[in-house]
Amino acid sequence: MAPEGKKGTPFSYVEVTEQKRLNEARENGVPWKKWGPYLSERQWGTVREDYSADGNAWDYFTHDQSRSRAYRWGEDGLAGFSDDKQQLCFALALWNGRDPILKERLFGLTNSESNHGEDVKEYYFYIDSTPTHSYMKYLYKYPQAEYPYRDLVETNRRRSREEMEYELLDTGIFDEDRYFDVFVEYAKADPEDTLVRISVHNRGPEAAQLHLLPTLWFRNTWSWGNEETKPVLGQIDGNKIHASHPKLGDYTLQCEGAKELLFTENESNASRLWGQPSPTPYVKDAFHRYVISGEHDAVNPQKSGTKAAAHYTLDVPAGGSKVVRLRLNRKPAADRFNTFDKTFDTRIDDANEFYDRITPKNLSEDERRVHRQALAGMLWSKQYYYFDLDRWLTEHDSHPMVGSGKGGARNTDWFHMLNSDIISMPDKWEYPWYAAWDLAFHTIALSLVDFDFAKDQLLLMLRNLYAHPNGQIPAYEWNFGDVNPPVHAWATLFLYRIETELGRADIRFLERSFQGLMLNFNWWVNRKDPQGRNVFAGGFLGLDNIGVFDRSAPLPTGGHLDQADGTAWMAFYCQCMLQIALILTDYDTMYEEIAYRFIEHFVWIAYAMDRIGTNHDEMWDSVDGFYYDLLHFPNGDAMRLKIRSMVGLLPLCASTVLEGGQLDKHPRIAELVNLFRKRHPEVIEKIASAEDLEKGGYMGRRLLTTCNRPKLKSVLGYMLDENEFLSPYGIRSLSKYHKDHPFVFYLQGQEYKVEYLPAESNTGMFGGNSNWRGPIWMPVNALIIRGLLSMFPFYGPDFKVECPTGSGNYMTLFEVAKEISRRNASMFLRDANGQRPIYGGTKKFQDDPHWRDYILYYEYFHGDNGAGLGASHQTGWTGLAARALDLFARLTPEAVLASTSKAIAEMTREQVAGGTVADTGGSNPDE
Q1: In angstroms, rounded to a whole number, what is the distance separating the alpha carbons of residues 18 and 373?
Q2: Who is most buried in 130, 423, 531, 891, counting CB within 10 A?
Q3: Residues 483/437, Cβ–Cβ less than 8 Å
Q4: Whole-Å CA distances, 498 to 322, 387, 818, 873, 882
Q5: Which residue in 32, 30, 60 sits closest to 47, CA to CA?
Q6: ∠ at Cα 97 (92, 99), nearest 5°?
Q7: Phi and psi torsions of 400, nearest 5°
Q8: Which residues touch 132 (CB under 8 Å, ≥6 apart)?
Q9: What is the pLDDT of residues 764-810, one digit of tens each?
Q10: How remote is the C-alpha of 779 from its chain's centroid?
Q11: Residue 525, SS3 per DSSP
């Protein structure tokens, strides 16, 4: 057992109601989080559902098939809600009287159908959620005219990569406001009693009819040879649906005012799909056939099955609304709907109380809106993710240890994996699967509302049933063996330090994380620096098309690539692991040797990036004053790929300050450091400036960084130049210099080019659905801000740089960090003209009162005008907007000079709702 953690200064608080629920869930096992928004928004087209011979997941299981075909590994739906094992599911189905398809799930284009990769073509918004999901609110905008499925597919398919995507608003379907706003709210009367309120507003000029089918169903667990007992749904007492599940138990859905309950089975319609007899006459698409085609014999007249719906026909007047009320509970409430609205009012009050507590008081009304909806999006993006690789590979005849192993499926090295957890997703439609480095960023924002869940997410990726036995952290389901930037240690340290300063140190969490991170660190060293030169590769490393070549594929030139970002990531990893090891040495001196190991490893990495003398085979270019990737040819020659990109800025992130005398408290570490300095004085002198070596930093501090003082000034000169990286909305991923000066590489008559593209990509690299050649990305902006804040306590208030470059205006590093954060936040906020940059020239979003205050947190943003691009609901890491607003609302330079982590914690003291941290050390890590 790890020792008790050090306690910071405790603080008093008035415990708000929602925080009491969080505490009850953690301390007493009260299942407040058992039910939540755990359905995906797209299960079709995923790797899990792909049983094709060629691995074409998009074409094997299509949107058109999804209404008729039972899923194997998960479920999806509109405003979906389920238990935490996704056994019993609830979502909406809609029909406007014109669509050819019952609207049961979101529609979008596949990777091959769109000119810029897969993309959802619907408008929906995560408006609110508490961390226990005691209250949630969601909005879906449903057109009254026939949904333009064919137009969207055909028009986007005709467009080139040089053109923007064709969106649903572009079709004209929302003209004259002929659509329904469908609001879905959930409120928990208790952990096993959930109230559902569906409010349908007709925004159009004429009355319109809507068929509304709130649907309850079981995930199909019985059709795959599992010998699972089949659950059952049945009608009782007129308008109630009784659900009986052998593991989950019994529940009742009460449907107020429902004239008709429909029942069928969650089984594939084999006749429609494959021309074969179906196992039952009542199949998954029965409600579609019943409502749209009038096939009354499609539903079970015995009123039983594994999928059921209440069928409401709503005639909604122009400008008017209708409300439908339902209640899902283990024990039907005696009052049914008598206290329904009062319960909703109370839960809304609880949610307001919670957010009033955690939101900085000095944020404006619009900033509070952006802050709250960002966190709501984070909480709505939770999803139950189920994937048994051992079984999946066996079913594909691709298991390397069982059967012939000849199937050729992906992820064959990961047969140990069994994922069955609630996980924070990047985007539940476009990326309905976890991504390791995204997840680390998610936890930074999630920790504002639920520290326990944030820490559990970090530990999850290190568990035996996730991380590979060789130490690699899984990347994402398309290729678990791909390489993501190693940011887990940073996120772990960030959360630990804040809790410590709040008086809630969780040393067990830190130590458990460190053990898993050590395995992962060793994997990096052994696999990504095969020559032992402290120079790292890694492939695309999350930056997709940033290079002139596909960095995850064999180089067309032959040879290999030394990556400036990969090497900087490892320097940063060393620094974070060092800081964790230093904390652990307070409890066990065995960690001193480990801490020194990370110091020495960092020094050699920093030195490898810029060695003594003039060398053509290193990443730092002393003439340009910038870092570049280095291309090694088979004949031994090397050249820098002189692309000014985020690759060359990431070394700024590898910066960590040690307090004066910090190492002296650990005699063995100090002894080893002094020995290294005696043996390699030239290495120390190379990586640190003479001034810093002689004088040290502000208050005697020491700085570990890949960018010493001269390098820092040079790199910041580029980064803060508005003609290079500095956009009105943050730091671009590629310098604007390359707009007029593209980088071109010729090889055997073929041209390879990188040019500044502020919006979408013009290549198909990595599917063409993202672009790192100009747009602004929130996660790397956040790391740059972190790097600047880390260096500020070393350089102090007297060190200033010109910002913007050439302006004559000089700022401290703290002020530069705050300025970048301000520019990031301004993308989401109304400007002086009342316009939000994220919505560009889309008038509906800019001016319409029913649209303008619903915020979308896009995947990335236009490098010049801040318009949102890519996945529209990637609240995952773009939810960092909430943390950024928090960070600089009260953070002062004086506090940061004293201690960055203490400054953030002091700010958090006034916001956090209180409570104690989870005991993350006492349970089976693979439960």
Answers
A1: 17
A2: 130
A3: no
A4: 46, 33, 20, 28, 16
A5: 60
A6: 75
A7: -70, -15
A8: 18, 21, 22, 25, 32, 33, 188
A9: 665 566 789 999 999 999 999 999 999 999 999 999 999 999 999 99
A10: 10
A11: helix
